[in-house]
Amino acid sequence: MTRRREAELAALFETASELAGMRDPDAVLRSIVRRARTLLGTDLSYLSMNDPAGTYMRVTDGSVSPLFQQVRLGLGEGLGGLVAQTARPYATADYFADARFNHTGPIDSAVRDEGLVGILGVPLKLDSKVIGVLYAADRTAREFPPEEVSLLSSLADHAAIAIDTASLFETIQANNAAMKRAEEAHDRLTDLVLRGGSAADVAAAVAELLGGPVEVLETAPTLAVRANGRAVLIDDVWVCAVLAGSELLGGITLSGRPDLSDADRRLFERSAVVTALLLLLRRTVAEAENKVRGELITDILDGRDPSGLLARGRRVGVELTEPHVVLVADGNLGAATHYASVHRGLAGSRDRDVVLALPSRSTAVAHEVARALGATVGASGPVVGPTAIAAAYEEARRCLRALRQLGREKDAATMADLGFVGVLLGERGDVSGYVRSVLGPVLDYDVERGTELVHTLEAYFRCGANLSRAKAELHLHVNTVTQRLDRVTSLLGDWQSPDRVLEVQLALRLLRLLG
Q1: What per-residue string of b and e applies to 416-455 under the rule 16 or more CB within 10 Å gives b?
Q2: Residues in CB range of 472: below 8 A, 6 or more apart
Q3: Distance between CA atoms of 1 and 6, rounded to whole angstroms?
Q4: pLDDT digits over 223-257, tens only?
Q5: DSSP reduced 3-state for 464
Q6: Closest Cα to residue 408, out of 428, 420, 422?
Q7: pTM for this predicted structure
Q8: First-to-final CA distance of the chain
Q9: Mutual orientation of helices 2-20 and 262-301 as an angle, nearest 10°?
Q10: 431-449 helix and 478-492 helix, angle to the nearest 10 degrees
Q11: How far apart are CA 426 and CA 398, in angstroms?
C-alpha cells in the first residue's frame, strides 16, 4: 500500500508538470486519458466532452471497438450521461446489472461490443460547469474503492484546468501581439509549476508582467466569488477568486491597474487558475506525503525490517541514521503531522496518542511541540535508527502517562526529568533502565576494576550515612571508606544532594530486588 501511494504521488507530480506545459488541447486530452489508465491500472480509459445535446466520445486509450469509440450519450443516459448531468462521480462493478442508469440500446450495444463490465466516471468541472467526463473501466467485474474515486477525481481537477488553459492559449493565438505576450506569460507560469513554485512566486511573476502589485489572499470578497473565476474591479483593485471547481481556495488581487485591457484581464484570470493548480498540487502532495510518513512511523514502531525503513525514510526526506527525539503527545494528529512535515520528521497515531520522531540532538524540542500543539508531551532520546526509535517510543509513552497522573497538562518532560516518579507512575516502568541511568558509571567501574563501590554505598546508607559505623560493618579503615565514596562522587557528581541521594537509594534498592 505504501509503495502504491508513493507511485501515485510521483505520477501526480508528472501529470501536473506534463499538463502545465501543454498548449495543444488534443495533446492534453490524450495525456489525461493515458495517465488515468496508468494510475488506476485499468483495461482502458476514455474521456467524453459535453455539448448542448449531451456528451460525446473524444479520446480513448485501450479501446478496440469502433462502435464504442463513436458512441454519443444524451444527458442522463448511461453512467456517463448521469455523471455529466449530476456533476457527481459514479462507479459500478457490473454495468449491465446496475439499475441506477438509464440503459439505452445504442449505449448498451457499444459497451457490450467493447466488453466493459466495471466502470468509474468522474466529472471534469470548470467552476460549476461540467465540461466532460473522465472514465476508467475494466472488462471484468471490479469494485472501485473511495481512494480510487478520489485519485481519478484529483486527476480530473488538474485536467479541467489544463484543458481550459490550453483552450485559452489556442484562442489567443488569433492575435499576433497578444499571442507573444500570452506565450511569455504562459512560459513564465509553466516554469513556476515545473520548478515547484509557490503561489507567492506566481504573484511576483504576474506583478512584473502586468506592472502592478499582486497579492494572494486566503479568501476572496463575496463579489469576486460570485464572478466564478472572472476578475472584478472593486475600489480600483482587480480581484479574482482562486477556485478549484466550486471550492474556494482564496483570492488574488492586482492594484494600480484599473484600466486593464481584455488581454491583460484574461492573463490576470489565468494567474488565478495557475495559483489554484499549485495550491491543489501542493495539497495533494502534502496529503500523500503525510500518509506515507504516517505509515512509516507505524511500521517503525511495529519493528519492520530496518534497512527497508531507512530507504523509505530517504524517499520522503527523512534520514533515520541521524539523531531523532521521539515524542508521544495527546494533541491533534493534523497539527502534529503539519509540524513534523515542516521540521522534516515523522508523525502518526498509535492507540489514542500522537507519535512524532523529529531530527534533533536535544529533548528540549519537546517543550516547543507542547506549545505548538497545546498538548502534553512525553519525550525520549535522542536516538539513532528505527530499532532505537521503537524502544524510545515505549519510554516516551510511559513518560506521558506519568505526566497525566501528575496532572501536568500541556507540559513536556523526559523520564530523566521525572526520575523515580516516572518509574512509579509509568504504565510499565523500565526498572533496569532507571537503575542504569542513576548508577551506570558506578556499576561499570565495579565490573571493569573488580571494586566494591556499590557494596560500599549500600553499607553507608544502612548505617545511616555514618562513616564510623560503615567502616566497622565493612571491616575497612575509615580512610578507605572515604576514598571509595570520593570515587563515587567523581563518577556520579553531587550524589549526596537531597534530590540525588533519594534517587541513589531507590536505585540501590531496585538493584538489589533485581538481583
Answers
A1: ebbbbebbebbeebbeeebbeebbeebbebbeeeeeebbe
A2: none
A3: 9
A4: 766 767 788 888 888 888 777 776 777 778 888 88
A5: coil
A6: 422
A7: 0.38
A8: 47
A9: 170
A10: 130
A11: 5
What secondary structure, in 3-state letters, does 197-241 show?
CCHHHHHHHHHHHHCCCEEEECCCCHHHHHCCCCCEEECCEEEEE
Number of residues written out for the chain? 515
Q: In this structure, are residues 231 and 239 in contact, taking their beta carbons and an 8 Å threshold? A: yes
Q: Write out the H or E segment, with its range, that includes residue 57.
A: strand 54-61
Consecutive H or E run containing 17: helix 2-20
Cell 485501450 -> residue: 62
Annotate 354-421 with three-state secondary structure. Answer: EEEEEECCCCCHHHHHHHHHCCCEEEEEEECCHHHHHHHHHHHHHHHHHHHHHCCCCCEEEHHHHCHH
Give the distance between the most distant pair of CA atoms in the chain: 110
Q: Which sign, positive or negative, has the C-alpha torsion 467, 471, 474, 480? A: positive
pLDDT digits (tens, 9 = 90+) for 38-83: 888 999 999 988 887 778 888 899 999 999 999 888 878 899 888 8
- Residue 273 CA to residue 279 CA, distance in Å, equals 10
* Grid coordinates belonging to 363: 529533548
Residue type, 176: N
**Spatial separation of the C-alpha atoms in residues 439 and 459, rounded to whole Å:** 16
C-alpha cell at 49: 466532452
